[in-house]
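[step 3/7] inverse_fold.run input=structure_tokens len=243
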């Protein structure tokens, strides 16, 4: 990755060179588009950490011009921002940035999702292994699962850490689980085994079916530890035992 401060300055210089009236932040003059711009800046804080405040404001202003809000309620605005970034020149310099934006968006969706009962480790402890294996689960409405061709989840989680230092993620595909527990949203990096289990549960497999399929594909993974990880996250709302 390029040195961050240097990249931010170079990128902002490129934005400044665009032939527009005034500055790249001339969007401030329009109250409604300014509100849309602020909504993007607030909804994509990890993108802002990576590119810097001035650059995210400029990007948000351009996005608001290209994709103006369709509603005066801006809490849910920005669904197209990650795809828009993927078509922007910045993606050539920071290819992981659109995926980081997509993860920021998952976090917004998790915050805005409906409340529901939460199934946790204490509930799991009341079940026998056989009972648990026979269960079909309902994921919590806030639960989101993403899979990316590059280590955007590791980059996203690292930037959310206030003690973040330099990171050197392995350049490989990985996923993220976004879940809400007791009102707090958390993001967890997941590997292919966890992704397969969660995907199977979402499609209606029993816990036993999902675990068996995953263990055949990824025999080196500790399935029990994997399951406890996403149960503890708040990803599950309720169970229905298969007869």
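[step 3/7] decode complete -> sequence:
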């Amino acid at each position: 990755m390029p040195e961050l401060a240097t990249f931010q300055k170079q990128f902002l210089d490129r934005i400044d060179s665009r032939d527009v009236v005034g500055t790249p932040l001339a969007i401030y003059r329009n109250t409604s588009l300014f509100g849309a711009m602020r909504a993007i800046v607030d909804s994509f804080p990890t993108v802002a950490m990576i590119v810097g405040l001035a650059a995210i404001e400029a990007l948000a202003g351009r996005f608001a011009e290209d994709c103006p809000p369709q509603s005066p309620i801006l809490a849910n605005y920005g669904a197209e921002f990650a795809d828009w970034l993927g078509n922007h020149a910045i993606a050539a310099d920071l290819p992981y940035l659109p995926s980081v934006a997509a993860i920021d968006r998952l976090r917004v969706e998790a915050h805005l999702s409906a409340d529901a009962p939460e199934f946790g480790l204490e509930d799991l402890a009341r079940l026998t292994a056989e009972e648990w294996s026979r269960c079909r689960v309902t994921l919590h409405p806030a639960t989101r699962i993403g899979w990316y061709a590059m280590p955007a989840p590791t980059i996203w989680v690292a930037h959310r850490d206030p003690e973040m230092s330099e990171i050197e993620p392995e350049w490989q595909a990985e996923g993220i689980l976004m879940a809400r527990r007791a009102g707090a949203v958390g993001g967890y990096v997941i590997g292919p085994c966890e992704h397969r289990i969660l995907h199977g549960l979402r499609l209606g497999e029993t816990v036993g079916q999902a675990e068996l399929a995953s263990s055949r594909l990824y025999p080196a993974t500790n399935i029990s530890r994997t399951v406890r990880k996403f149960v503890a996250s708040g990803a599950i709302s309720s169970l229905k035992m298969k007869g």
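[step 4/7] annotate
Residues 4-110 form one domain.
Residues 133 and 202 are 15 Å apart (CA to CA).
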